[in-house]
Amino acid sequence: MNTEQRIQVFAELGKELADNTEEFKDRLQTAKHKNGWFSVDYSQLAFTNWSKALTEDSLKYWTSMYPKLSNAIAPKKVGLIMAGNIPLVGLHDLVSVLISGHIALVKLSSEDTVLMTFVIDKIKSISPEMGSRVEIVDRLNTVEAVIATGSNNSSRYFDAYFGKYPNIIRKNRTSVAILDGNESAQELGQLGKDIFTYYGLGCRNVTKLYVPQDYNFNLFYESIIEYATVLDNIKYVHNYDYHKTLFLLNSEQLLDNEFLLIKEDTNLKSPIGVLHYEYLSVNKKVLVEKLNLSEEVQCVIENQAIKFGESQIPQLWDYADNVDTLRFLLNL
């Protein structure tokens, strides 16, 4: 298959991911029963976002950045160790491997087998030829390169085991937002999407705010009240209750609206149900530059380069850990 043919396969996949069939609805329910974090609404959102990303225009724009794609390559077996923190989080790696012409050996996360298998089956149905280049495996014994996503702890294991192969090994990252105190209620409401979508489990979720001195959180709390629906998920409730109890036992200062705890803390990453904040102590531009260089930060949301509410809608060319996956694959 040439690049144009691969683009057509994924453009068709994008259309099919938008189909609200009975089979699709059943898969969403099954995924929810297997993983309580995969609510039907958020799984549906993941499919919707992917259907919007996999358009012919976007695929052509993305691939046009890589002249090497027009060259024939010797296909290599690329092992994909997928995460399962949010629905379909491993799909970008799979699309990248297949559009580059390589072969994907996929080690699914136990947290996201139902939805990923559904998508892989769709690819096989649309194009048996491309589908033959995808294999779900339990062990990566015959790989020639590896892309692995996991925690900081698992990354050490991945590095030790797969370090002899060309690799991309991702660690934990998170996202932050910078406020200037002049945000409208609507803008803060949009920021709520960046905080609460997928319950805050993704690397593109905001887990920390940088705010001006003496910032008043009243408008912020008023603006995010619609996200109290997170309390419909018992797993979120357990996290919120646990950390609230822990903080109170330790006499730590908190702000609380009964579904989100806000705590002053220098750590970038906050637990589920908690949002950290820190007062701005340097020029905003200096802080943005510093955060963009941090290996712990995926996105810096300041309502400019990435606007409030857009962190969970990455384009095909927005790479995890800011590592160009497709360029890596084309250079194998």
Description:
The protein folds into 2 domains: 3-172, 3-Layer(aba) Sandwich (Aldehyde Dehydrogenase, Chain A, domain 1), CATH 3.40.605.10; 174-301, Aldehyde Dehydrogenase, Chain A, domain 2, CATH 3.40.309. The two termini are 19 Å apart. Helix 1 (3-16) runs antiparallel to helix 3, helix 1 (3-16) packs antiparallel against helix 4 and helix 1 (3-16) crosses helix 6 (114-126). It has helices spanning 3-16, 22-34, 40-53, 56-63, 91-99, 114-126, 128-131, 152-162, 185-196, 218-223, 234-249, 284-293, 325-330; strands at 77-81, 103-107, 134-136, 145-149, 167-170, 174-178, 206-211, 255-256, 261-264, 274-279, 297-301. The chain has 332 residues and is α/β, with parallel strands linked by helices. The relative contact order is 0.13. It contains 13 helices and 11 strands. Helices cover 41% and strands 15% of the residues. Strands 8-9-10-7-6-11 form a 6-stranded mixed beta sheet, sandwiched between helices.
Strand sequence of the main sheet, in spatial order? 8-9-10-7-6-11
Helical/strand content category = alpha/beta
Give the % helix: 40-55%
Distance between the termini: 19 Å
Shape: globular
| Structure annotation, total helices | 13
Rg, nearest Å: 21 Å
Supply the CATH superfamily name of the largest domain.
Answer: Aldehyde Dehydrogenase, Chain A, domain 1
| Strand residues, percent | 15-25%
How is the biggest beta sheet arranged?
6 strands, mixed
Mean of all residue-level pLDDT scores: 95
Number of strands: 11
Per the CATH scheme, the topology name of the largest domain is Aldehyde Dehydrogenase, Chain A, domain 1
Q: Please identify, by name, the CATH architecture of the largest domain.
A: 3-Layer(aba) Sandwich
| Order of secondary-structure elements | HHHHEHEHHEEHEEHEHHEEEHEH
CATH structural class of the largest domain: Alpha Beta
Counted up, domains total: 2
Low-confidence spans: none
